[in-house]
Design a protein that fits this description.
Blueprint: E1 11-17, H1 21-32, E2 35-37, H2 45-50, E3 57-64, E4 71-79, E5 93-101, H3 104-113, E6 129-133, E7 139-144, E8 159-167, H4 171-181, E9 185-186, E10 207-213, E11 222-228, E12 246-254, H5 257-269, E13 278-280, E14 283-289, E15 295-300, H6 304-309, E16 323-325
Parallel strand pairs: 1-4, 5-7, 8-11, 12-15
Antiparallel strand pairs: 1-12, 2-3, 3-4, 3-16, 5-8, 6-7, 9-10, 10-11, 13-14, 14-15
């Protein structure tokens, strides 16, 4: 008996909580090459509940790279007030964002000029890779763009978001959520080996991992799940909230309402609690906590005009646009 493939949606958004949203988004623009996009107004107590927070008042900036229907989302939380964090790529949770750049040497020069911390460069040529941290302390891995690997280009930008890394306590249970609930497929490949732990000065060596994508191929944004087998990763603080500083959330989305509703049902049938849905016109979204309490969002935006309003297209202005959520 064969099982029909689960419906899957690609990663459409990566969210950060920033203490200094202006400096951080300017850094992503000038050092990495992300393009400013528009934000969107909204908020209030109802919006807080949709994110699992008691209240919500934020500033919001969105940026895009060269991929279709993808954005970075930067929040500055005023209520609740964002708390500083100091995370590591071997800690539990959303741990690292992987970026592909046109020219790794040129990117390294910009990082040095900006005074960014830079780890050891491993590999040579298109195999070269290096880790840095953004002004908020978020860990980023830079690799030189390889043809056929990563999302397809729809606009000119110096950078493509290629993968995200999540450290989990049980790889098999995490795969149940990401494959059974979100419908992702195992690519059968790896992104890191034990030697790559030197990128972020980790003493750990033994890991199990899986690299997942929407269709099992490598031409989209990838999810890397990692389990350390010889130690327990440092967990999120007991009082952690989504509003706290750092890399906080990954959203999966589609222009297809049917796909959104099917994935929502798959998640619900898996026993995961979905938070109240929020909507803006035909656009809809829901937050939830998945495996290891990883914060995940589901999104559908079937209206191309709403895509622009919600910051999925670059603005003509080079300055990131800050919007307030009262």
């Amino acid at each position: 008996m064969t099982t029909s493939p689960r419906t899957a949606m690609p990663v459409v958004q990566i969210a950060f909580s920033a203490l200094n949203i202006e400096a951080t988004t300017a850094w992503y623009r000038d050092v990495l090459g992300f393009l400013p996009a528009d934000g969107v107004n909204g908020g209030g107590a109802g919006s807080g509940a949709t994110m699992g927070l008691p209240s919500l008042r934020t500033d919001l900036v969105k940026m895009v790279d060269n991929a279709d229907l993808f954005q970075l989302e930067f929040f500055r939380f005023h209520d609740p007030v964002s708390q500083p964090t100091d995370r590591h790529p071997s800690d539990a949770g959303w741990a690292l964002v992987g970026l592909y750049v046109d020219d790794l040497d040129a990117a390294l020069s910009r990082l040095r000029a900006a005074g960014a911390p830079i780890g050891p460069v491993l590999g040579e040529g298109t195999d070269g890779r290096v880790v840095t941290r953004d002004p908020e302390g978020v860990w980023l891995e830079l690799r030189e763009r390889t043809p056929g690997f990563g999302p397809h280009e729809v606009r000119r930008a110096q950078v493509t978001t290629g993968f995200v890394r999540a450290v989990v306590s049980d790889l098999d249970k995490a795969k149940e959520f990401f494959s059974g609930g979100l419908g992702l497929r195992d690519t059968g490949t790896t992104l890191h080996d034990p030697a790559d732990e030197a990128l972020w000065s980790s003493l750990a060596s033994a890991t199990r991992s899986a690299v997942l994508s929407t269709d099992g191929n490598l031409d989209g944004l990838l999810i890397e799940l990692v389990q350390y087998t010889e130690r327990i990763p440092r967990p999120l603080p007991a009082n952690y909230q989504l509003s706290d500083q750092g890399f906080v959330n990954v959203a999966f989305g589609s222009r297809s309402v049917a796909d959104y509703e099917t994935v929502t049902e798959q998640i619900s049938n898996g026993g995961y609690r979905l938070l109240p849905e929020m909507s803006h016109g035909t656009a809809r979204a829901r937050y939830l906590l998945g495996a290891d309490d990883l914060s995940v969002e589901l999104i559908t935006i079937p209206d191309r005009d709403l895509e622009k309003i919600h910051g999925f297209e670059p603005t003509s202005d080079r300055e990131p646009t800050t919007r307030s959520r009262p």
